[in-house]
Amino acid sequence: MFGSDYALEASLVMASIVAFLLFVTMVYGGFGSAMRHFRSLGNSTVYVITIRSNDAVRVRGFEATEPITYRPCDLDQNNACDGSDFAIFKKTLFTCSSDDGYSRLADANGDGCVLGDDWQTLFPSYFAQ
Q1: d(CA 2, CA 94)
Q2: 32-56 tens-digit pLDDT
Q3: How many CA atoms lie within 13 A of 127 on its CB side?
Q4: 3-state SS track over 87-126
Q5: What number of other Cβ atoms are within 10 A of residue 97's Cβ?
Q6: pLDDT at residue 4 tops 80
Q7: Which of 14, 48, 61, 113 has the fewest Cβ atoms within 10 angstroms?
């Protein structure tokens, strides 16, 4: 199954990290809460991380006291993943941070360019079979 000892070691490290995150989630939120944080999408797994606080968060003059929901595919930030988000992605495809029309939100992996792998991250339902 593994081509080398390095691959086996890397897989064990990743499994340990996932197990630790699952354990921490179970301790603080119960098993049901932990399982809600794992979503299977085709060959990929998305980890939904929720941060809760009773205190307000202040960042450069902005105060947030309400929970903020972020949907990766919601490029126009209207709280829905729809055709307008696809249109934004289509316009920004093959742009980089130094180009006009680049969208930081469309650059899902943060590598500075909007490419096909960003599409796969933002719109995973198109790849789930």
Answers
A1: 34
A2: 444 444 444 445 555 556 656 555 5
A3: 15
A4: HHHHHHCCCECCCCCCCCCCCCCCCCECCHHHHHHHCHHH
A5: 13
A6: no
A7: 61
